[in-house]
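Request: Give me one sample?
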Amino acid sequence: MGLLKKIFSQDPEKTEQKGDAFLKVSDWGRAKLEFEKALDALEKTSSDDVSETRLRDKLVQAKGALAHEHRQAGEDLMEAEYYDEARGFLQLALDLTRDPALISAVEKLMHEIGRLSAGDIQMEVPRSDLTPFADDETYTGDQDDETFMALCSALPEEVQEAYLSYGGSFKTGYLALNRGDFDLAADDLSHALEENPAPDSIIPLELATAYLNLEKLDEARRLLETFLQHHPDALPGYQVLCEVYWGMGAFDQAETLLADCPDDLKNSLAYVLLRGETLSQAGRHSEAASLYQDFMEAYGWNEPLVIALAGTLETLGDLESARDLYAEIMDQCRSCHTRIDPLIKRKFADISFDLGQHSSAIMEMYLSLAQDDPENAPLYFQKISRIYTLMGNEEEARRFRVFAQQAEKKMRSHLNY
């Protein structure tokens, strides 16, 4: 109980609490913004050096993790041959990080983009032919260490220390879990649990997550119920156990679990989101919407809650209200000069389209989405084509149908390769 009690207790600074909530769900960009706002507010109201140091450490964590995320996005876009978009993400990574190794890796990628986009002759040669096998092994190990440290650096200090002490089986299992290799994760995390049998270990939380994804619900449930006996203040334990109960159709058990949750967790953002999702999973969408609205009336506008409320209103068929909420989120991002999540932009565009808004503004949004979300570019080009058809401009409609076909063909060729 002692290890995680401090981690999940309420922080009196609401802005820092928002940042903590975003950090816990790996939303590095919003965490960074909240910590920056908290530091700004602290400078104006207090000279608390301890609080400032804590906030700056969290800001460094968020910026470092965000830099790694931007690097990965840049690499993914390079593979899809969207070089301009990749360059933008890599530049963001450079702006955020102070890690010499990451800076060097990103600069090499930027140089590679310059070579590829300049039209150098490229040959399709397997990686093994370009790099000696032993060197490739060394690179993979270094990359794993770097990824593990980046993942751990985003966790609270007490959890970081625990995860770094659990040994090699835990590291490989945790990395496998984060890349979606759940069979390997379950095997390695099981070994790690045998190697670290302390009753207050945090390993059962990660192992249960692997079991949940393998649909081994009974095994996950047993681990989590025991875990929460030792860590009743660990909100992630409630989150994963609720998902297990949802998978079992045991919605009453999920409600009972949350009702018995310690009182100091019940006013947290994460708890309200979890309870709202539990109500929605049980088909009680109107109650979920009321829960989100009541919380925001008490504590103010909050983006994760607005997203959850908008999704619930969509399910209830209130598309106009859902669209307006997505518009609010986009306006908030613009005012903060932050990148709009492509999913939010797509929700707004799709609902507007379904409500009969077939305007040039919606076309421009779909064009922007084709750049932001290249994997779904064929869908966006099809939507643009349909809008042109509705406008009576069949020539442009035909042109964008061709774009959609070309984008689809390009994606298939990459998948086949």
